[in-house]
Write a structure and sequence with these properties.
CATH topology: Porin
Low-confidence stretches: 14-21
Largest sheet: 16 strands, antiparallel, barrel
Shape: globular
Structural class: mainly beta
Number of domains: 1
Number of helices: 2
CATH architecture: Beta Barrel
Distance between the termini: 42 Å
Number of strands: 16
Mean pLDDT: 85
Strand order of the largest sheet: 1-2-3-4-5-6-7-8-9-10-11-12-13-14-15-16
Length: 353
């Protein structure tokens, strides 16, 4: 950990020696979406209409030493209608030395959704009835990252490392002088490190993996927090297939009566009927393992496993700059609860600009 911190500090100092920014450009992009939803996480068959938009302000430029920089900030409407500033990032690309970036609630390194099958979005992440427990991701915290340069390693291999020095630090509009709140040694840990690698060994084939772990926590915990995932996605002709696996062990001081492990397998297929119409099918199986307390007269505890099965069907039709979609997701044993059946259907239209 100390070596990672030193490396990042050296890289920061290397590009502060001599540069003056050349005037860059500012762009505004975004999307406007409307949806009609039937059903959902509530067992009752509710209905709702949603209208949302996302605006992204971006700026870029070049320094006199050849380095380039990029900055972006998202502006999203909150639940009460107030405009929220979030997901900001400043990255500096240093040629053959790679890229260093500072991220505020941004910069995901998790590969749990990189299997990427879905006409509208990846599986149940686009329209689902439950939250799958995938584990840690540095993008939920203020973090610093280093990325290897592009097109240097064989097979399109790239590597990234992210470091959160203060888990629980405020995100979403941090002042640049932010010192972070005092973070005591806690159960899960007060520092987070995440690694990710990706490669394209064949045309159309993408593979990769990530691993995240917290440190600085209570050494007396019954289980240290860690998570990871790997994936493979292959595109050929009008088809795209994908597979992903995620593992997550949450931090805890006592295992009795709690879920100690989540294991998720995801796979699917997508077919482009023509330039306008795409359809997809995906299935996700997420199993939660619970440790039960040692019963009287027994020498060991018992484990209970519940598997949530999620099936997603999607279709997307593109008309100019508009995408009309329908997604239906059915979940059995939802929320890792035996016998809980849920279903949601989402009709949507999205405009990109």
């Amino acid at each position: 950990m100390r070596n990672i911190t030193k490396t990042l500090l050296v890289l920061v100092s290397s590009f502060t020696i001599s540069f003056a920014a050349v005037a860059g450009e500012v762009t505004l992009t975004g999307s406007a979406k409307a949806s009609y939803t039937i059903g959902g996480t509530d067992d009752a068959m509710d209905k709702g209409i949603g209208v949302s938009n996302e605006l992204k302000v971006a700026a870029s430029g070049e320094l006199d030493n050849g380095f380039t920089w990029n900055y972006h900030l998202d502006l999203d409407p909150g639940a009460a209608g107030a405009l929220t500033q979030d997901d900001a990032a400043l990255t500096i690309t240093m040629g053959d030395a790679g890229t260093i970036g500072f991220f505020d609630g941004e910069g995901s390194l998790h590969s749990n959704l990189a299997w990427g099958v879905g006409a509208l979005g990846t599986g149940s992440d686009y329209a689902g009835t439950m939250t799958i427990n995938y584990g840690n991701d540095v993008d939920s915290e203020a973090n610093i990252q280093y990325h290897t340069p592009a097109d240097v390693l064989p097979f399109g291999l790239s590597a990234k490392v992210g470091y959160v020095p203060n888990v629980g630090d405020q995100t979403g509009g941090n002042d640049f002088k932010n010192t972070g709140a005092i973070n005591p040694v806690v159960e899960g840990g007060n520092k987070l490190t995440q690694y990710r690698v990706d490669a394209t060994p064949l045309d159309g084939l993408n593979i990769g993996a990530d691993y995240a772990t917290e440190s600085g926590g209570d050494t007396g915990t019954a289980q240290q927090e860690e998570s990871g995932a790997y994936y493979a996605k292959y595109a050929f002709g009008n088809f795209k297939v994908g597979y992903g696996k995620s593992l997550y062990a949450p931090a805890m001081t006592n295992k009795d009566g709690f879920f100690t492990m989540y294991e998720t397998d995801s796979y699917g297929i997508e077919f482009a009927v023509n330039d306008q119409l795409s359809i997809s099918y995906s299935k996700e199986k997420s199993e939660g393992t619970k440790d039960n307390a040692i019963a009287d007269g027994s020498t060991s505890d018992t484990k209970t496993k519940v598997e949530s099965d999620i099936v997603s069907l999607q279709a997307a039709y593109v008309i100019g700059g508009a995408t009309i979609g329908i997604a239906q997701t059915e979940t059995s044993d939802a929320d890792y609860t035996a016998g809980k059946e849920e279903k949601v259907t989402v009709l949507s239209i999205a405009m990109a600009f």
